[in-house]
Amino acid sequence: MVSIFLRSLVYNVLFYMLLVFWLIVGIPTYLMPRWAILNIARYWARSSIWLLRVICNTRVEYRGLEKIPKGPLIVTSKHQSMWETFALLQFFEQPLYIHKRELTWIPFFGWYLMKADMIGIDRGAGGRALLDMARRAGEAVRRGRQLIIFPEGTRTAVDAKPHYKTGVAQVYVDCGVSCLPVALNSGLFWPRRTFMRYPGTLVVEFLDPLPPGLTRREFIERVSTVIEAATSRLVEAARAEQAQLFGRVPNAPARD
């Protein structure tokens, strides 16, 4: 475990150095169309994932790539880690994220969010912010973008009880497009609230798309059922792999 600690330390230092590097490289994109900054984001994601494999021996496997539809889309993903916030964008032509407004106050990084035309919301504004967010997201998706959203609202521990927020159902209804559910086991390899990065096989699985036209209740029931079932399967397989690697499962995120 000492080796994992040292590898994790090295990776985290290099990860943030790499982020600064791409922030600097991306400065000219302020004067270019949106596609330019999105390409920089993809390079950052791919280089960070490559670095994770080289330093921490964390391999990544993507399943179901053939299920990703073209054009306007809602992508609803399980959210166990910071990892998927940047890793998923590489698969979509015009990715769109919803983020807390305070992130736009961060020099350079926040400016890039605005340049990429992401949607910032004031979480303290309550229902009014939710309605405004749903309206703006619907307009952007209907113009051809792919909204990547985490229906639980925040990162959750691997074993935490799932809680899917109704706001994502409102976004789905307002957008009127297909929804692509995503399951993963990233929390076992990039746990939240710690800098430890564990070796093994991190799996992302794109599931069968849900059609437009479901009611909000039907949508929440179906999307939560398919994501949780697939995520449980991926987590179980990853823990079996970790048990073989370490003789036990290393410190998994604690239950909230």
Average predicted local confidence, pLDDT: 91
Count of distinct strands: 7
Unreliable stretches (pLDDT < 50, length at least 5) are 252-256
**What is the percentage of strand-forming residues?**
5-15%
Largest sheet: 7 strands, mixed
> What would you call the shape?
globular
* Helix/sheet category: alpha/beta
What separation lies between the terminal Cα atoms?
A: 24 Å
CA gyration radius, whole angstroms: 18 Å
Kindly report the spatial arrangement of strands forming the biggest sheet.
1-7-6-2-5-3-4
* Order of helical and strand elements: HHEEHEHEHEHEEH
**Total helical elements:** 7
**In which range does the helix fraction lie?**
40-55%
Protein name: 1-acyl-sn-glycerol-3-phosphate acyltransferase
GO molecular function: 1-acylglycerol-3-phosphate O-acyltransferase activity
Domain Phospholipid/glycerol acyltransferase: 73-187
Keywords: Acyltransferase, Membrane, Transferase, Transmembrane, Transmembrane helix
Q: Could you explain how this protein is built, in words?
A:
- This is 1-acyl-sn-glycerol-3-phosphate acyltransferase.
- The chain crosses the membrane at residues 13-32.
- InterPro entries: Plipid/glycerol_acylTrfase.
- Pathway: Lipid metabolism.
- The structure is a single chain.
- It is built from seven helices and seven strands; from the N terminus they run ααββαβαβαβαββα.
- The chain is globular.
- The chain has helices at residues 2-25, 34-56, 83-87, 109-115, 127-142, 167-175, 216-246; strands spanning 58-63, 73-77, 95-100, 119-121, 146-149, 179-184, 200-206.
- By secondary structure, it is α/β, with parallel strands linked by helices.
- Helices cover 45% and strands 14% of the residues.
- Strands 1-7-6-2-5-3-4 form a seven-stranded mixed beta sheet, sandwiched between helices.
- It starts with a helix and ends in a 10-residue tail after the last helix.
